[in-house]
Design goal:
With about 475 residues, the protein is mainly α. The protein has two domains: about 180 residues, MFS general substrate transporter like domains (Growth Hormone, Chain: A), CATH 1.20.1250.20; about 250 residues, Up-down Bundle (Growth Hormone, Chain: A), CATH 1.20.1250. The protein is built from 18 helices and no strands. Helix 1 runs antiparallel to helix 9, helix 5 packs antiparallel against helix 7 and helix 12 runs antiparallel to helix 16.
Length: about 475
Amino acid sequence: MAGEKGNPQTILHLTWVAFFLIFVAWFNMAPFNTTLIATMGLTAGQVDILMICNIALTIPARIIIGGLVDHYGPRITFVWLLIFSGLVCFQFALADEFEDFLVARLLMSVVGAGFVVGIKMIADWFPPHKMGLAQGVYAGWGNFGAAAAIFGLPCVALFFPPDTGWRVAAACSGAACLAWAAVYFRCARDAPQKPNYKKIQLSGVIEVTSKKDVCLQTLLWLPVYGAISAFVWKLSGQPDGIFSPALSVGIIGLIIFLYSVKVVRGMRPNLARIKQGVPPEKQYEFTQIFILSLVYALTFGSELAVISMFPGFLQTTYGLSVTLAGVLGSSFAFANLVTRPSGGWLADKMGRKRTLVILVCGASMSFWAMGNISTQLSVTATALLAVACSIFVQCGNGACFSMVPLVRKDLTGQMAGMVGAYGNVGAVFFLTALSLTNAQYFFQTISVFALLVLLSLYFLKPFAQPNLP
C-alpha cells in the first residue's frame, strides 16, 4: 500500500495543507479578541490570559508529539492531531463562560505542535540534497495558515450577526480539519523504505551516544521547564490571573520536581547504552541539536515575540490607528510564504553552516538597528527595516530545519520536537525581557543573543549524508 500512493510531491502537498489547516485552527481566536469582549462579556485581562493559554502547552506538546511521531509514524499521528484540532474548534465555538474558553484554548495550544509531524514526514520522503527546499515549502505554506486565519475567518463571520459569526468561523476551521483528516488518512502514506516505527521507544528521552551528550541533553531541558514555569508565573500575576500566588509556587515546585525526574530518566538508559557500546552507524553529535535549538530560539522565537508586540509598538511610537498598526505589524509574518522556503533552498545550494552564519549575522544587525528606532525615522523606513529583519529570521527558520532531519533520521520526530519547542522558549524569554524593560532593550537583547548564537555556530559540524536511512 505504501507504494500505491506515494510520490514525494503528493506527500508534500498533502502535508503542508494539513499543517496549514492546523495553524488556521490554532489562530482562530486571534481575529476575534475584541469581538469576544463585546459579545461574550469577557474582560481584556481574561482575553490576555486566553492568549497565553493558546501557547501554554505548545512547548511540552512539541516534545511529546515528536516521540509519538517516531513511534507511530507521521501519517497516523497527523490524522489524529487533525481530528483533535477539529473537535477542539467545535468546543471553542460552543463556549459560553470564561472557564469554557480557558479549557478550549489550553487544549488548542497542543495543536501548535503539529509542525513537528510534517517535519518527520518530509524528512522520510525527500533526499538530503532536496531537504531544505521541501521543509521550507512545508513550513512556509503551513505557517501561512496563521495569516489566513487572521484575514479569512472574519470574512466568514461577516455573513452572520457578531455574536454568532465568530462561532461559525471557528466551527468552519474545525470542519476543515476533520475533512482533511479523512483525506490524509486515505491519500497519505508513510515512506515505504523506513524502519518499523514501533522500535522507537516512548520514553520521552532522546537517545544520545556519549557522556558529554548526556550532559548537553540535561542542560537543554532546563530552559524548556523554565519557560513553562514562566507561563505559570504570568498566569498568576494578572488581576484576572487563574492561579493564586500560593498555587503558582506549588505548581512551579512541581515543575522543578518533574525536571529532576526527567534528568534521571534521561541519564539512566543513555548511560547504560553508552556503557554497552553504541554501534558506529548509530553514533551522532547531540551538539548539532543543541546548537540548532539555539538557532531556532533566535529565529522563530524572535518572530513570535515581535509579531506579538510590533503593532502596539507602532501605535505608541507613531500614534497610528489600531487598523494601520495591525496591517504594518502583520507584515513581519506575511513573507513566510517565500522566505522560509528560500532559507531552505539557500542551505541546500550555498552550504548549511555558511547560510546560517550569514542569516544570523544579518538578524543581529537588523535587530540592533530596530533597537534604535525613534520618531526621527519615518514609518515607511521602520516598516522596511522590520521586513528586512523578518527576511533574515524567517530564512533562518527554513535553513535550521533543513538540517534537523540530517542529524539522525530515525530520531527526527523527537529532535524536531526539541528544536521546535525552543522556538516557543525563545519567545517566552524575549517577551519576558520586554515586560521587564522597554522596546529598545527588547530588540537589543535579541541582537546580543544572536551574537551568542553566531559564536555557537563555530562548533556546528558540516552535514553529510544522514547516518541512518
